[in-house]
Amino acid sequence: MRVHLIDGTYELFRQHFGQVARHSEAVPYAATIGVVASTLQLVSDGATHLGVASDHVIESFRNDMWPGYKTSAGMDPELLEQIPLMEQALISAGFTTWAMVEYEADDALGAAAAVADADQRVTQVMIVTPDKDLGQSVRGTRVVQYDRRKGEIIDEAGVTAKFGVGPASIADYLALVGDTADGFPGLAGWGAKSAATVLAKFGSITDIPASSGDWGLPALRGAEKLAVTLRDNLELALLFRRIATIEVDVPVGEVDDWRWQGPTDGFAAICDSLGAPHLVERAERLAKRTGPAD
Asked: Which of 5, 1, 65 is nearest to 248 (CA)?
């Protein structure tokens, strides 16, 4: 079986700033409707075991670690309002939904990917998001990312080609270069090229020699300045790495829990409240086609 793990928060943003923004007469909850419809489309395309993770609360335990970490401040109120609506709609549609409060959607996706990867019945795990943080969960061609907007599958070779380092070094890479989307700056002077060059050789921040003379990278410009910055800010770099590391010790259940078996009895009422009664017939038609669990 193939498992699909969907970043619901990203999908809501994608719908809101994508097709919804292009239609001036979009209904009030068009982004939520779009997420449910696109998840049903995955079932139509053959998906059987699905889980959707969302940031029920944008803030997480990481905000206690770094004051500049991302918050809900400044977010579009229309989007914030739709997060719980999307979760309710997905649950009523019969989809396993992880609404994260202490942790983030990325943590649930990483945890679920680890659970699915350990299940020998699973042939492939598709993490449905282009989020660079999830690159650390990719493994070979077995656990991959799927960018639906681009129709692109990113396997381990794809992660390395994109960042210059493999999945095991992604958190270290982000710690050095920073992540503006998540609100931490990285270390001054460390850019994508220098971080990739050094980490490609040493793998992790803690394995980088204190002196650039021991790096064996004569072509790297400003190496000694980079080494001094890392020495002087090692604790900060390790903090950023901790922030960038996905938590996999999050309860997400087992693969069998994620099998889609059709909408719940309350789905019709939810669809009516959203102004999307057409989704009911679509879901019921798909449920008849997929049949009951074995």
From this structure: 5
Of 70, 40, 52, 61, the closest CA to residue 3 belongs to 52
Largest alpha-carbon pair distance within the chain?
67
Q: Phi and psi at residue 62, in whole multiples of 5°?
A: -70, -25
Surface-to-core class of residue 254, CB atoms within 10 Å of its CB (0-12 exposed, 13-18 middle, 19+ buried): exposed
C-alpha–C-alpha distance, residues 92 and 86, integer Å: 10
Where are any strands of DSSP class E within 131-285? 143-147, 152-154
Kind of pairing, strands 49-55 and 143-147? unpaired
| Closest CA relative to residue 263, chosen from 275, 271, 274, 255 | 271
By residue count, the chain amounts to 294
Tens-place pLDDT, residues 158-198? 999 999 999 999 999 999 999 999 999 999 999 999 999 99
Rounded Cα–Cα distance for residues 287 and 284 (Å): 5
What pTM does this model have?
A: 0.94
Are the beta carbons of 208 and 216 closer than 8 angstroms? no
